[in-house]
Amino acid sequence: MKQLLYFCILFFSLNAQELVDEILAVVGNEMITRSDLIQTLQFLKYQNKLSDQQIAEQRPYVMKQLVDNKLLYMKSKLDSIEVDQQRLDEVAAERWREFVRRAGGESAIEDIYGEPVKFIKKRQKKALEEEFAINELRQRFMGQVNISRSEEEQFFKQHRDSLPPQPERLEIARILMRVEPNKKLLNEAYQKAEKALERLKNGEDFAELAKEISEGPSAKNGGYLGMARKEGDYFPEFAKAADQLQRPNDISEKPVLSQAGYHIIKLHSKTDTEFELSHILFLVQPTEADAQVTIDYLDSIRQEIIRGNLDFDEAANKYNVNEVERDKFGYLGIAEYDRIPDEDLKTKLALMIDGEVSRAYQSSEGVQIVKLIKRYDQSEYDLKKDYSSVEQLALNYKRQTEFAKLLDNLKNQIPMDLY
Q: How many helices (H) and strands (E) does the chain have?
């Protein structure tokens, strides 16, 4: 809720110089208008389905946050904090894509805000620039706050009775395998892709052909995918093949296989970090029989682990398809039980004992077996046993306290008028 409020405050408070509006506050040389406040409240109401009474209750808090954000932004400028422009461009593009997706297209955004997309994008990027500056200010400040052992002990003594108990936590690891489609499905999709490439070589228009035969959701847009990051937005195989295309309108010479199926990729433009693409996709969706083959195979690995013929860490390092997890022998860390998003996994873990390995089952990521390394029951904090946790709690408390003092000092240092 606070993160959403923080973003929408930054986004909507940029209208001040574009609207003839009642000024509610001036912080340094930054204005806060009535429209800033009203639009922020409306955004919160829409996003969180709040009643008029709930919105009225939020009004003083929102106004305070608007003022605090302006104070922090002014402080960032006084401290000569510079924003990484390349990172700003990347995140702005990523957020815009998500904005367009949620709204249902750029035309829908124009209908909502009643102005051209270029102005909306400009304000959104400016809001993000302020967010970056404030975050950098916050990180620098927090990094300078240290805590001594005596302060930690004093914190624990004063707040011990008010600290909530540590929730139930589970230390877990897993082996994840991808469900591979059978050869017949792969061959059928490959043949379709080969025929499509032949039609393109004979001069057919890429976009029109995509509308006709592509099996992905982008078909209705002529296969157009828009601008995306080279790392993180697409399957690695797809991104690698796309990055090999050099000139606008280049098309992949061969069908490219990813987890989704076979692609024919067209490059529109590229930078060092992003590319603008279209594709024609021929889906390859594994069958239930394909999934069962993977389940049976992973269950056989589980049996070898249970019999003592194979170490779990060794198996995870060999078979886990997630490269990051593979390098850590499948280790996922310690998670609070109530915060585990996979309900099926939670059900299995609830019935497992320390050291037990689950049977293979299909999840949204593939087929996996999970090992419960250790269960930590709900308990009160103990200064000696849970020292690292208490240390972090004490440090966070001190950081919040010192940051609140910073805000109070800024109110005395930066000119501010509330109307």
A: 15, 11
**Residues in the chain, total:** 419
Q: Do domains 2-144 and 169-180+288-376 have the same CATH topology?
A: no
> From CA 157, how far away is CA 153, in angstroms rounded?
6
Structure tokens of 159? 């707040």
User: Could you say which architecture CATH assigns to the domain 183-283?
Assistant: Roll (3.10)
Strand pairing report for 23-27 and 416-418: antiparallel
Three state DSSP letters for 73-137: HHHHHHCCCCCCHHHHHHHHHHHHHHHHHHHCCHHHHHHHHCCCHHHHHHHHHHHHHHHHHHHHH
The DSSP result for 164-198, as a single string, is: PPBPPEEEEEEEEEPPPPPHHHHHHHHHHHHHHHH
What per-residue confidence (pLDDT) applies to 17? 42
User: Are the C-beta atoms of residues 153 and 107 closer than 8 Å to each other?
Assistant: no
Q: Residue 292 corresponds to which amino acid? A: Q
Going from N- to C-terminal start, the domains of the chain cover 2-144, 169-180+288-376, 183-283
pLDDT in tens, 193-251: 999 999 999 999 999 999 999 998 889 889 998 888 888 788 889 999 999 999 999 99
Six-digit token string for 193: 């892709």
Residue 358 CB contacts under 8 Å (≥ 6 apart), including other chains: 302, 348, 349, 352, 369, 370, 371, 372
What DSSP state is assigned to residue 358? Answer: P
Which residues does 302 contact at the CB level (< 8 Å), separation at least 6?
Answer: 357, 358, 359, 360, 369
- Residue range 2-144 in CATH 2.60.40.10: no
| DSSP per-residue string spanning 243-302 | HT--STT-B-SS-EE-SSEEEEEEEEEE-SSEEEEEEEEEE----HHHHHHHHHHHHHHH
**Angle, nearest 10°, between helix axes 34-48 and 52-78?**
120
CATH class of this structure's domain 169-180+288-376: alpha beta
Positive or negative torsion for Cα 336, 339, 342, 347: positive
Q: Quick one: pLDDT at residue 110?
A: 79
- The candidate with the shortest Cα–Cα distance to 334, out of 287, 373, 392, is 373
Q: What average pLDDT values come out for the chain (419 residues) when binned by 10 residues?
A: 51 45 85 76 71 87 90 92 87 82 78 75 80 93 94 93 90 95 94 95 94 92 87 86 92 92 94 90 92 96 96 96 90 92 91 96 93 93 86 94 94 87
How far is 374 from 377, CA to CA, in rounded Å? 10
